[in-house]
Amino acid sequence: MHVPDGFISIPLCIILYVIAIIFVYLAIKWSRENLDEKYTPLLAVLAAGIFAIMSFNLPVPFGSSGHLLGAALVAIIFASPYAAIIVLSIVLIIQALFFGDGGITALGANIVNMAIVGGFVGYYGFSGLKDKIGEMPAIIVASWAACFLAALVAAVEMAISGSFPLGLGLLYMGGYHAMIGIIEAVITVIIIKGIESVRPDLLAYKRSGK
């Protein structure tokens, strides 16, 4: 899902950078108001874990890649999409600057796709569904949708930039991430259930009722 340099036009890159900067600012503001010494270690552990799982890339035709995301996991645990934006943005910046995973000009796009879209879809998908279909099914659907829709947004951006046709982009990016999203959903449920069994107090959505 990492978009390399040259796959998104410069004007669109600039627009996506502006959007990314605005949301990262809001996420930093959220972190100052909501994170304390109790939750910061968990955020750091999740960031390290997400960095690791995102390092395993499955090549997607036309030059992008497929991998697990983790945005829904963080957003659900902390009951806020801004937690996912903080974690994913840090991971994406490190990957782009030091590991060549994702382009520098496309960094804003990658933050929008994975951190912002993934975080908002994951959290609001979960919060909107949990009272209707149950907590665990809601986690499954939301985490799958976060991975799948983030990939579709990336395909649309690259199609707008003329990197490859929209239909093929949606087919390959959507198809790969529809399958990857199943793995993402399973891992998300396992981790959240594991935290619930040992430290339920760390699950902010249970404490806040959000």
3D architecture notes:
This protein is mainly α and 210 residues long. The protein has eight helices and two strands, in the order ααββαααααα. It has helices at 10-34, 40-54, 71-77, 81-98, 107-133, 135-160, 166-198, 204-208; strands at residues 58-60, 64-66. It has a two-stranded antiparallel sheet with strand order 1-2. Helix 1 packs across helix 5 (107-133) and helix 4 packs antiparallel against helix 5 (107-133). The longest helix is centred in the last third of the chain and has 33 residues, at 166-198.
- Kindly state the number of beta strands: 2
Alpha carbon gyration radius: 16 Å
Q: What share of residues are in beta strands?
A: under 5%
Trace the largest sheet across and list its strands: 1-2
Order of helices and strands: HHEEHHHHHH
Globally, the shape reads globular
Assign the structural class, choosing from mainly alpha, mainly beta, alpha/beta, alpha+beta, or little secondary structure.
mainly alpha
Describe the main β-sheet briefly.
Answer: 2 strands, antiparallel
Question: What are the low-pLDDT stretches, counting only 5+ consecutive residues below 50?
Answer: none
Give me the number of helical elements.
8
Average pLDDT figure? 90
Report, as a whole number of angstroms, the end-to-end distance.
29 Å
What is the percent of helical residues? Answer: over 70%
